[in-house]
Amino acid sequence: MRRVVITGLGMVAPTGNNVADAWDAAIAARSGVGRISLYDASPYRVKIAAEVKNFSLGGIVESKDERRMTRFVQFAAGAAHQAMQDSGLVVNHAPERYGCIIGVGLGGIHDIESNALLLAEKGEKRISPFFIPFAIPNMAAGYVSIQLGLQGPNLCPATACSSGTHAVGEAFEWIKRGIADAFVCGGAESAICPLGVASFAALKALSTRNDDPEHASRPFDRDRDGFVMGEGAGILVLEELEHAKRRGAKIYAEVIGYGVSGDAFHITAPPERGYGGFRAMQMALASARLAPRDVDYINAHGTSTPLNDQYESEAIMDLFGADAQRVAISSTKGVTGHCLGAAGGIEAVYTALSIKHGVIPPTANFENPDPACPLHYTPQVAVERKVKVALSNSFGFGGTNATIALQAFN
């Protein structure tokens, strides 16, 4: 089988609109959570979110084209442009060998909300002709493929909060099997609107720490009370090793494993002891031909919800045994909030950077240990440590789970 490496990274996040700024914020445990500014949240129970700030596609696409792209697609386009620039990859021949897989959970939910209100209040003639392209999740992959001339496989996993990790994992598999030579892949999301936030609030999934937004997202902490909704995009360029070497590409890390599973348990709740996540991690390690003792770092799903954090911890303990107390764990959602379909892409970027720089990003706001989460979560302060092998976990509603395994390239 062919080897697959990461040669480019791009990021649009609540903590910065490029990889360098977002990484610096993650290392410094600097939160991107604040009061909602995208709409008037004063009538609603949840008034906080992790918004992307001051973002524009200026210089990347023409202004008329930007107006025809909804917010999550703009994020994907911006992060994809960064990743391609970073990689130095140019699609100038055999474009059918270059693909695009960008996972999205909800798509244009705020466009659905606004056009439904227009229909009810003013009739069908007021519906935007761009409504459908704005609303459907696969437009992130569609626009990026058009923008970059990628004529190979074009897909959009819509697997809730696992979408971005599924996108990276599937791109890895397609390159490994020889179907493509490179992929632009990752996740994008923008669901911070009254309908999006109120819907998760109705599930009692969101933090209501409205008076202290910077400390509201607190994965694995005893006092966590739910996740904070985030938005953004994390995009990677994956490339077949020999293809990358021929053009002298720099390499961040190698993708070596991918695991997927289904809980078959409940539409929103995780199963006790997180056995679906256990099996996704187990499969990723098996496909990489590694044992738990080989893993140095886990970028956890770590949403800051009571059950998810407990059951993910238990899944790690069950799979890793005695090694669970050795492995470094953190959740970068402490600074980004939970970016839903974008989370796996963003966290894959962070995991690759951890390997490249030998730094474990901290779990922000981890202040009070929870007896139900008794592992090493890298509280508050980054740790310098050589990372040879790392896992990145994503678990989603519907019981869908994904784990990717990355390794230092040598």
Characterization of this structure:
The protein is an alpha/beta fold and 410 residues long. It has 2 domains: 4-246, Thiolase/Chalcone synthase (Peroxisomal Thiolase, Chain A, domain 1), CATH 3.40.47; 257-399, Thiolase/Chalcone synthase (Peroxisomal Thiolase, Chain A, domain 1). Helices cover 33% and strands 18% of the residues. The protein contains 13 helices and 14 strands. A 10-stranded mixed beta sheet has the order 5-4-6-7-1-8-14-13-9-10, sandwiched between helices. A two-stranded antiparallel sheet has the order 2-3. It is globular, with a radius of gyration of 20 Å. The mean pLDDT is 97.
Structural class call reads: alpha/beta
Give the CATH H-level superfamily of the largest domain. Answer: Thiolase/Chalcone synthase
The amount of helix comes to: 25-40%
Gyration radius, rounded: 20 Å
Number of strands: 14
Query: Could you report the average pLDDT, rounded to the nearest whole number?
Result: 97
Uncertain spans = none
Assign the CATH architecture of the largest domain: 3-Layer(aba) Sandwich
- Please state how the strands of the largest beta sheet are arranged side by side: 5-4-6-7-1-8-14-13-9-10
CATH class value of the largest domain: Alpha Beta
Largest sheet: 10 strands, mixed
Indicate the overall shape.
Answer: globular
What fraction strand?
15-25%
Q: What's the helix-strand series?
A: EHEEHHEHHHEHEHEHEHEHEHHEEEE
Number of helices: 13
Question: What is the count of distinct domains?
Answer: 2
